[in-house]
Amino acid sequence: MKPVYHFTPPSNWMNDPNGLCYFGGKYHLFYQHYPYAPQWGTMHWGHAVSEDLVSWEPLPIALFPTKQYDRDGVFSGSALVKDGKLYLYYTGVRYTAVDDEDITVSKDGQFEACQAMIISEDGYHFDNFHGKRQVIPPITDETLGHPIHTRDPKVWQWKDKYYMVLGSKIMEPGREDFTPRLLFYVSEDAAHWQLCNTAGHFGGLGSMWECPDLFSCPETVIVLSPEQLCNTEPTNNTVFGIVSFDYDRCAVEIHPEVFRYVDYGLDYYAPQSFLDKDQNRVQIGWLRFPAPFPNGDGTQWIGAMTLPRVVTTEQGKIFTRPHPALLDKFPLGKREGAPYRLELTLRAGEAFPLEKDYSLSFHGGAVIATRKGRDYPAPAAGDSAALTIYVDGCIVETYVNGGEAVITHVLEEIIE
Ligand code: FRU
User: Fold this and answer.
1) 322 to 73, 97, 238, 308: CA distances (angstroms)
2) CA gap 8, 413 in Å, rounded
3) How remote is the CA of residue 16 from the centroid of ligand 1, in Å?
4) Cβ of 15 less than 6 Å from ligand 1
5) Cβ–Cβ contacts within 10 Å for residue 60, how many?
6) How far apart are CA 189 and CA 192, in angstroms?
7) Which one, of 169, 156, 173, lies nearest residue 201 by Cα?
8) pLDDT tens, 19-70?
9) For the CA of 76, the nearest atom of ligand 1
10) Which band of pLDDT confidence, cut at 50, 70 and 90, is reported for residue 384?
């Protein structure tokens, strides 16, 4: 049931997509990877390339711990193409106390996080020993950001400057819960960074914002993966909303009411976006799995990426649609053991059973995916809902009303 067009790690653990870019005629996908077991551990950056966003060629591990400041993990980050070179930015992690029985995790969450970069000439060679440099040291001013939980640099160019956003949180005086926070930095050369501004919002959008992303398509969209967003499992989920961003001051206001789930299936987390060669804004997210799958050769793998989705804003609404390069890879009509696509319209009260323990239904106002008795609703206006369902191995992505909402699930019954 290994999917064909959803990228999966050759073996062992994968989480967030990192360093997505089009560079040297190829798409590069890096990913959070623990290469020794199908569980989260000391983070490396796995690597794969593609000519078309359809077929991925796995490559050797790109980044791994070599420095005191990243000795316990090369956490999530992003890519920038500058002067014909590939600049990668990541969070370097150093545990200040380790779990004696599992040195791949910190003891009681005690670690230090800094922001670092590495430049590759060709996108294939990464000098982990001599090429890394720390660009933002661990935060020590707790009124600015959290000394441990400040991470996931997303870097982009705007006119003649470079911008970086980090996710963080602070404890504001008089409060008992954390306020999530974004830190914005600016650079003239993409190597030296100066703090420009912060943004945050107390209440309604979780405690810490992981993997922030900000882009225009054409309106400005901000993507946040808040921790403790909900009270029910999974508590961390990804939302996005249209905002306005003032580049002179790096100023943005966050109003929770304009945010919605990027994917209502809630298996989805920590997406990242980049521009494809035709300047489409493409977003890829990580699909969390309940358990690993066997590869059939004694190894296992866990985690998948979503299909690449094109994000656009149209009349104040955000749409996400599968990348056009994929469309003819999913022929219409059910097939056994190969990717396929279904198109159907549901009227209020109608349901469509797709697989054992997995169905889709429409109840005026919402399309509901029901997996093993639990409902996952996505808003859908109108008398009927048009669904396009992409099935690829154990993964189902359902696009509602031409990309107004997406519900993606890993079919758990297939795993068991
Ligand atoms: C999100 C995340 C990031 C972090 C990485 C570590 O899933 O927690 O914030 O950089 O994963 O693997």
Assistant:
1) 32, 43, 18, 6
2) 19
3) 7
4) yes
5) 8
6) 6
7) 169
8) 999 999 999 999 999 999 999 999 999 999 999 999 999 999 999 999 999 9
9) 10
10) very high
Alpha helices in 248-364 (DSSP H): none
Quick one: pLDDT band at residue 414, thresholds 50, 70, 90? low
Nearest CA to ligand 1 atom 6: 75
Verify whether ligand 1 is closer than 6 Å to residue 75 (CB atom): yes
Cα 82 to chain centroid distance, Å, stands at: 23
**CA 385 / ligand 1 centre spacing (Å):** 35
pLDDT digits (tens, 9 = 90+) for 240-252: 999 999 999 999 9
Q: Would you please indicate which residues are annotated as catalytic (active-site) residues? A: 16
**Strands (DSSP E) found in 121-259:** 132-136, 151-158, 161-170, 179-187, 194-200, 208-216, 220-227, 239-243, 245-246, 251-252
CA distance 87 to 83: 10
Asked whether residue 356 carries a pLDDT value surpassing 70, the answer given is: yes
Q: Does the pLDDT of residue 412 top 80, yes or no?
A: no
3 state DSSP class of 412: helix
Q: Give the Å distance between the CA of 348 and the centre of ligand 1.
A: 39
- Contact criterion met (CB below 8 Å) for 111 and 99: no
* Residue 275 in tokens: 């521009």
Which protein residue's CA is at the shortest distance from atom 8 of ligand 1?
210
Strands 300-302 and 12-23 turn out to be: parallel
The mean per-residue pLDDT over the stretch 87-99 comes to 98
Ligand 1 close to Cβ of residue 32 (< 6 A): yes
Q: How far is the CA of 180 from the centre of ligand 1 (A)?
A: 15
C-alpha torsion sign, points 143, 112, 191, 123: negative
- pTM for this prediction: 0.98
Sequence-distant (6+) residues with CB within 8 A of 367 are 346, 360, 361, 377, 378, 380, 385, 387, 398, 400, 405, 407
CA–CA separation, 396 vs 394, rounded Å?
7
Whether residue 5 contacts residue 13, with contact meaning beta carbons closer than 8 Å, is answered with no
| Number of other CB atoms surrounding residue 410 within 10 Å | 25
Angle at alpha carbon of residue 23, lines to 70 and 50, rounded to 5°: 95
Report the atom number in ligand 1 closest to the C-alpha of 211.
9
CA nearest neighbour of 29 among 15, 12, 41, 43: 15
